[in-house]
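Box 3.1. Reading complex inputs
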Amino acid sequence: MRNALDIRMVANRYAAKLQLCSPQDPASFSLARAVHGHMIASGFKPRGHFLNRLLEVYCKSSNVVYARQLFDEIPSPDAIARTTLITAYSASGNLKLGREIFNGTPLHLRDTVFYNAMIIGYSHNDDGLSALELFRAMRRDDFRPDDFTFTSVLSALVLVVGNEQQCGQMHCAVVKSGMGCVSSSVLNALLSVYVKCASPLAISSSAMVSARKLFDEMPKRDELTWTTMITGYVRNDDLNGAREVFESMAEKLGAAWNAMISGYVHHGCFQEALIMFRKMRSLGIQHDEVTYTTVISACANGGFFQQGKQVHAYILKNELNPNHNLLLSVNNALITLYCKNDIVDEARKVFDQMPLRNIVTWNAILSGYVNAGRIEEAKSFFEEMLEKNLLTLTVMISGLAQNGFGDEGLKLFKQMRLDGFEPCDYAYTGAITACSVLGALENGRQLHAQLVHLGYNSNLSVGNALISMYARCGVLEAAESVFLSMPFVDLVSWNAMIAALGQHGYGAKAIQLFDQMLKNGVFPDRITFLTVLTACCHAGLVEEGRHYFSLMFENYGISPDEDHYARMVDLFCRAGMFSYAKNIINTMPSKPGAPVWEALLAGCRIHSNLDLGIEAAEQLFELTPQHDGTYVLLSNMYADVGRWNDVAKVRKLMRDQGVQKEPACSWIEVENEVHVFLVDDDVHPEVVSVYRYLEELGLEMKKLGYVPDTKYVLHDMECEQKEHALSTHSEKVAVAFGLMKLPPGATVRVFKNLRICGDCHNAFKFMSKVVKREIIVRDRKRFHHFKNGECSCGNYW
DNA sequence: GTAGGGTTAG
């Protein structure tokens, strides 16, 4: 057992070590933790410079949570400590917390560096306006700007300024700023402003001419100046210009090479990039971390997986150990390479071997899990993460939404705002997808309104998500208006809009839009054909479906996969063309899977084709024994022809297999609509209130005759479950409730987590005809619009 | 204690 003195001595020894190590060194964090721990254990109160040093290590190793704990223990943190923490917050994207520290700092504790840190934070996080606002405040508070201030403010200006004229004004302002002789660092920043304004995305290419003029007139050019010019030309799609500047450099250093390589990569000249990569080495110019990072990420994004692996091997062979901490970003790029090629486990190996990781590393793996659909692993990995930034949350929100966890996605979206993160356009995209999954139309509308307010509504991915959301929530007009208002659309937008029309039963319109897409020169993909075939299914367009199915391969070289075949089977079966359905199943290159058999079984039920239906069901019992839909369809098929003993057998089999029956439901009233959600938990408070109405509604329903007579309700379950009939089919109850309580003409909407059953489908059709009201139902698979006894999805789903 | 060029997570 050591005594306090020993502990203090050890602590002091660590402290001395800590002074020597670089804050970026991976070992420094654990060292700092050890020192800190010893100090706490010994009751030793570190002060002043030493505390700041500890704080710096925590911050620079991206451990901002520890940093904050330490900061809060400092009795009166000075400007240095505050600056350090603000910088760490802005590096992790949490400006709000940084600004809190800033605002809580009295004027007498502030200095120029302190202001600079906050301005830089804003500018790094793309918030140019706040940076400029702070710059004004700084001058109002009488602090003198220095070179750091000017360079940061200039880079912030790029974010809010779009044209060359404004660049020119800035140029004059900088020259006039009283500094007489403008320092070369400020001139470099100015050059960078011109160059960024000149990028094709940001309007003016004549800004490049001005940039060139400034460049030619600069009294002193350093490596940074040259590299800025090279990237300027690259961004302006002028590879020759870039090359010319590069060639005219007397001494070409690494960064310039990297800029050229990156230029080639961005213009798809991958071979050129690799040639330069090799040439560097042959001329004796060291590849550095950035070179490797660029080349590997190029391979990852350009689909050159094999070359990427070769570079990896090359690093392992020639370049020491990639586990060295300097190669953090290289390892990060490697992770992306493996994730993009669906080898998350390989990426995870790289991750596990890394001595130092940062937020990028963690986010890369997280998105790897998410993109591979491995949502459970993504969830637990997310929980493990101590440090999260905007991107972490965004990835997780989209991941949850895309994998059916809409409620969790929306919850996280709300939480991120409470935690001080301002959601970006991608985060909104995820949240809208979550609404889409949940059928949460009102929530989606609110988000849409916020997006318009923020100016994000013209963003491509946001627009695409909105189209799907409105379509899946049954508001086709809104989906259409989003599509039409988008300044740019891509294949995903077309696919989403074609799907929207198809979902609503407008098969012909969907095909028209598809033709228009082709006329616009957009090349379809497998999803496009899937949506077109689905549209044909919903509208019963058999000949058209066959046409597009063959067109897909013949004209576009896309081989049909499982889902395409399933659509075709569906299409034929609905039309009663069973020999065609069987025929197409026989031509499949691989063994048919569950989607194909499901389509066959559903079709057999419509036409009471028992023999074929049983065959399909047997296949399904082998492939997906836990899937409830098979049992329900099969028993319904028997019920339709009055074979009640077989119904009971199927139900018993289902119970023996431990397959859950449909869950109960809950409902909410929103304005003039009734929304119904099915939940797994029948003690859900909303379900309880449904039960409260049950008796009354039962009477009413009988009296009004809205629900077809008993066969439809009762044949779906075993005798002993009859008393629960209404709760397992409670969407009918809810609709009846809606029809009674809502004003005439209001639409009734029903949302369900599972597929609605055939009986409810029939009931809805019946109700829509008898009471002359439109009923909108959405389940996990489809959208149904009932009107005058017909449904948009055809005879059956 | 704070940047400015080349790079890594959607």
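In summary: The first strand of chain A starts at residue 665 and ends at 670.
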